[in-house]
C-alpha cells in the first residue's frame, strides 16, 4: 500500500466544515478513480494532516489524472478558506506539502 501525508495549517474550529467537504467528495466515485483506499484527517495545534492510503503505488499518477475533474477542482477551491500552506513562501504545488516517509513497519 502507498500513502501520502499532506501537512498544512488549519484552524481547528474548521474541522467540521473540512470533514463535511471530504465526506461529500468521498461519496462520489472520485476516491475509486484516484485509487484511494482510505483517507484520514487529523489536526494538532493549528496543523492539518491529511493521510491518504492507496491500493497501489500509482496513487500519485492517478491523482494527477483526476486534477482536471470538476469535482477535484471544486473541492480544492472549497477547502481554500480552511486550509493554508504550511509555508506559503515556498509552496508551489501540493507536492510541497507532502511529508517524506523516513521509516515504515508493517505487521506480517
Automatic annotation (TrEMBL):
Entries under InterPro entries matching the protein: Dimeric_a/b-barrel, Polyketide_synth_cyclase, Polyketide_synth_cyclase_sf
Superkingdom to which the source organism belongs: Bacteria
SUPFAM superfamilies linked: Dimeric alpha+beta barrel
Gene3D superfamilies for this protein: Dimeric alpha+beta barrel (3.30.70.1090)
Matching Pfam families: Cyclase_polyket (PF04673)
Record protein name field: TcmI family type II polyketide cyclase
